[in-house]
Automatic annotation (TrEMBL):
GO biological process, one term: lipid storage
Natural source organism: Cepphus grylle (Black guillemot)
Stated name of the protein: PLIN3 protein
Subcellular location, record wording: Lipid droplet
Keywords of the record: Lipid droplet
Pfam families the record matches: Perilipin
Family under the similarity heading: Belongs to the perilipin family.
A GO CC annotation given for this chain: cytosol
PANTHER family: PERILIPIN, PERILIPIN-RELATED
Amino acid sequence: VSQVANLTLVSSACDMVSTAYASTKESHPYIRSVCDAAEKGVKSVTEATASCVQPALTTLEPHVAAASEYASKGLDKLGEKLPLLQKPVEQIISDTKEFVSSRVADAKDAVSS
């Protein structure tokens, strides 16, 4: 999970969502109260679940470690094949706009000819 979270694409997307969430909470008092209640609920459920799941995790720890290692190797290979994962969202959006704009300009030139 931490390896996925550290991918540039994922971390920049999370940053964008976090910023939008915080901005929305700040500018809309009614939404803020709903979000605060939801956050408290999620925190309570997470704490309750963690205490129930901990004994099972202790038992399954060797299997979880093996699965984690396998997943890590798979993510490394995926990162090699998809360099897009190493770019921030803003750059991907900018590159896409540039690409589309270029293709539209090419199409206009072709039609004009």
